[in-house]
Amino acid sequence: MNGFDTITLVKEPRHTAKRVYTVSEVTQKVKDSVEREFCGVWIGGEASNIRRPDSGHVYMTLKDEGAQLQAVMFRAAASKIPFSLKDGMQVIAFGSISVYPPRGQYQLIIEVVEPRGIGPLQLAFLQLKDRLEKEGLFDPARKKPLPFLPQRVAIVSSLSGAALMDMLKIMHTRSPQIETVIYPVKVQGDGAGEEIALAVTDINNNVSNYPVDVIIIGRGGGSIEDLWAFNEEVVARSIYSSQIPVVSAVGHEIDFTISDFVADMRAPTPSAAAQMVAPVRDELLERVNTLASRMRRAVCGKLEDARDRLLEFPRRYGFRQPLDMVLRYRARVEELLYGFSKGMGHLLALNRERLIGMGSKIEGLSPLKVLTRGYSITTKNGKALTTTKGLRRGDRIETRFHRGTAVSVIEETARWTNCKGREHEV
Amino acid sequence: MKFEAALKRLEEIVGELEKGELSLDESLAKYEDGIKIYRKCLELLEGAEKRLKIFARDENGRLLVKDISQVPLSEAGNKQ
Lengths: 426, 80
What we know:
The complex is a heterodimer of chains A (426) and B (80).
Chain A: H1 3-11, H2 23-37, E1 41-51, E2 58-63, E3 68-73, H3 75-78, E4 90-100, E5 105-115, H4 120-135, E6 152-157, H5 162-174, E7 179-184, H6 192-205, E8 214-219, H7 233-241, E9 246-250, H8 258-262, E10 265-266, H9 270-277, H10 281-317, H11 323-341, H12 345-350, H13 352-364, H14 367-370, E11 377-380, E12 383-384, E13 396-400, E14 405-409
Parallel strand pairs in A: 3-5, 6-7, 6-8, 8-9, 9-10
Antiparallel strand pairs in A: 1-2, 1-4, 2-3, 4-5, 11-12, 11-13, 13-14
Chain B: H1 3-19, H2 24-46, E1 53-57, E2 63-67, H3 73-77
Helix pairs in contact in B: 1-2
């Protein structure tokens, strides 16, 4: 039927032969045939003139070079679009044409919309990554260092996942002294992102009751859909707000999620996260024990010097009176040395008081104290002299008394002999 | 004191003692400090083997920490 025919018909007077539809009838027929024909179809085009009123529905115009198609996505469907739909985007939309008789208009009711040429989740991932990066959520300067030796580690993961078991096993082998606390969550499916985000927030809010040094969030490998919760903005925000360092350990090495970018540390796998967080306890023990024995050896050297000095006293000054006392101290020094060389750190610590007491006693026997008893120290060029060997006539020597010093010039020297008449060995 | 800081301090003390420039008194005082730090390190490393814990909620929705053995796994949410 074209315009010409219609005019012809109008001019014909045989009204009884004519089939006259009402507007409603014809519209209903259009509706029936169009809706039957275009029920559940994919339509490709450019999304334009996108409007989002408060109702939550999304209105847009799909268009190509030759035509336009009004379209709507009702709230429930619109809320499931993972990416952000923008004007000018090439999309394919799945839905049905619906005719609205009161207005004589038709539109496409979209159930699913996808970007053309890229998966919807991939696009969502790229868009969110871009947005959060611009906002500074991935700023390396904000990343917190992981504790060197955590006392307590929280793991946010699924209780039934193999990933959790792997992490627990590795942590226990490397550092059985670390307390591990699990925060069980759904790691995929509806609401998983919210659960993960809530877990991170809960653990942070609870630190005054129960301090946690580091949080691992993660799960084992899976498809992009399986891992999706870790790409959700709510998870990213919770990690960003966490005062506790967060390690993101999602899927396999090749899987990157938004949480990996926001977290203080990305672990390629859950097992790797456990290794990053838990140092090998035995290695650290060996390290501190080595330091302790070096410390012991060094003090041991000092004590040996002290012993030597004690031994020197009777020989050097020929005094007998304090000899017993000196020998007694010497015996204790030997005893301490024995303890040191046996590496008995604990026993030694018990001896600590005695050791410190010894220190002052040995110092008490230092030449400076001895001066008060009438002895003096003779030095040449600041070095204490223990022998006349090397002294020449005319050398200047300095003698230090308890009070005051005197400078002398050597007239003559003689070798000193000890009480047994042997020449003193220098 | 955190382990890392303690370890660093211990290394410093060992360094000073090994230089041998301290008097006996100072050496012994340093040694005493060193032993304290050493014991702190041991304490941090040798803490008893910890039991596995789990976050749970009481009937009022408050967050609790329990030994995992106290919580049936089904109740904790055997979710994937």
